[in-house]
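My main concern about presentation is that the manuscript never shows what a single data entry looks like. An entry of this sort, consisting of the sequence and the corresponding backbone structure tokens, reads as follows:
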Amino acid sequence: VQLQASGGGLVHAGDSLRLSCAPSGRTLSDFVTAWFRQTPGKEREFVAAISHSGSTTYADSVKGRYTISRDNAKNTMYLQIDSLKPEDTAIYYCAARNPSLTVIRRDTRAYAYWGQGTQVTVSS
């Protein structure tokens, strides 16, 4: 499956942003899907994930400000980020596990399919 992430941009601290991730040719709810982020010189880190059934898991560092969701009618996954901070600046990637795998994982190696990333830059 090919994933297309979008919605990033240059925003001010305190703003909100919603990232989107849409697949091509497949139904997103067939997969465990997740958001990761990466900054220069650092490893890609887990942000949040959503299962087939809609259950969600978050990295401790983003709990309370980040919300992952999925609109099955639009076949799109979202990441809502509120009260943005400069430290949220990163490239955000959406990813999907092999559809036969139903457990949420936080490891990048557990995800077989990746979108191209969307840049989020937060100015102070």
Remarks:
- DSSP finds no helices and eleven strands in the chain.
